[in-house]
Amino acid sequence: MATVQFRTALLTVALASLIAAPTAIAQKAKPKAPAVDDSDKEMQLRMRLNMNPHDEEAHRAIQALLRKKYAFHTSMEEDGIWLKNNPDDYNSEIEMRSVAMTINDPEYAIGIDRYILAHANRAPNPEGYDSVSDRLAFLLIGRGKYPEALILLKRATELSPTDAGVWENLADGQVQAGQFSAAVESYKKSLDVDINQENTHEGLALAYFDLGDFQASTTELTAAVAVYNAQYHGTNPTDSWHLMLKNMNDATHSDAGLATLHYKLAKSLLAEKKYDRAITEADIATKADPDSATTGFYLKAEIYDAAGQPTKATATRREAAEAIALMMKKEHPSKDDWFQGFSNVQEIFIMTADGAVVDTANETILLLEPMLSKGNLKPADRQLLGMAYCTKNRTKECREQIDLAFASEGKWNNATTQYSAGEGLQKSHDPSAVEHFQKAYELDPQNVTFRMDYEASRKN
Question: What local confidence, expressed as pLDDT, does residue 356 receive?
Answer without folding.
Answer: 73
